[in-house]
Amino acid sequence: MNRRDALTTVALAGAAMAAAGSAKADTAPTSTIDRIKKSGLLRIAVIAGQDPYFHKDLTTNQWSGACIDMANDIAGKLGAKVETLESTWGNQILDLQAEKIDLAFAVNPTPERSLVIDFSSPILVHSFTVITKKGFAKPQTWAEINKPEVKIAVDIGSTHETIARRYCPKATILGFKERNEAILAVSTGRADCNISLAVLSVATLKKNPTLGELAVPRPLLTLPTNLGIRAEGDRRYKDFLSAWADYNRALGQTREWILKGFEAVGLGPDDIPPEIQF
């Protein structure tokens, strides 16, 4: 091979490497924050009938609630608008993994979930409660419902199910696809009680006052609730959401959003039992 041919070969090899590098860059995954800014959309999961977090107007199909207010605030700071995808508490984790959404609200950061998604700082702290069917003895402790004859209804894949299986392993646990189905099981007598986060339980009993009673069993169980996001190398989105969560929690803005969500179902601050944190 003469000098001219050698130079041509080197040039072609260099061009091929450059083209390969360019193709690789084109196919490299875009970070979530870049995708949101480019598309102008913040995609979130919404869950029907979960006041004060989410409320769907069946006439207009418009969504409202504390998490919608939070999402609008986050989107505004990113120069984006909110786009919703109807989901369930359990499925929103799968929606994140499938890149159908960019943000999941009210996600408890369990070790198992941390293997597949990432989390912001907590937006608030939740207490777990029990909704009993009418006539069922109101439990003062978790041990009182940790019996084979007690039927506990929970929504599959939720932290409600995790708490039920952790503190009531001897009970008969009935799993349902959605929380509304678990509540229906209690109202029809198919189940004796339902385990739910306090903010959801209070709103449920306000809408269904004949359903039963609200119990806050001892020991008092609390867990932080966070924003769920996809795990990725670029930390900007996570750091932004953590700063947003810390800032609004410290200022009391998060509590105001929750109270506003309660107002939609006719609940005020005095209607919240003192044991319940949020």
**Number of helices in the DSSP assignment:** 10
Distance between the termini: 77 Å
Q: Helicity, in percent?
A: 25-40%
Structural class: alpha/beta
Mean pLDDT over all positions: 88
Q: If you compute it from the alpha carbons, what radius of gyration comes out, rounded to the nearest whole angstrom?
A: 24 Å
The CATH topology of the largest domain is given as D-Maltodextrin-Binding Protein, domain 2
What fraction strand? Answer: 15-25%
What does this structure look like?
Residues 1-25 form the signal peptide. Pfam families: SBP_bac_3. InterPro entries: Solute-binding_3/MltF_N (IPR001638), TAT_signal (IPR006311). Residues 41-265 form the Solute-binding protein family 3/N-terminal domain. This is ABC transporter substrate-binding protein. The protein has 278 residues and is an alpha/beta fold. It folds into two domains: 32-125 and 225-271, Periplasmic binding protein-like II (D-Maltodextrin-Binding Protein, domain 2); 126-215, 3-Layer(aba) Sandwich (D-Maltodextrin-Binding Protein, domain 2), CATH 3.40.190.10. It is 40% helix and 23% strand. Strands 5, 6, 7, 8, 9, 10 and 11 form a seven-stranded mixed β-sheet that branches. The radius of gyration is 24 Å and the shape is globular. Mean pLDDT is 88; it is low at 6-28.
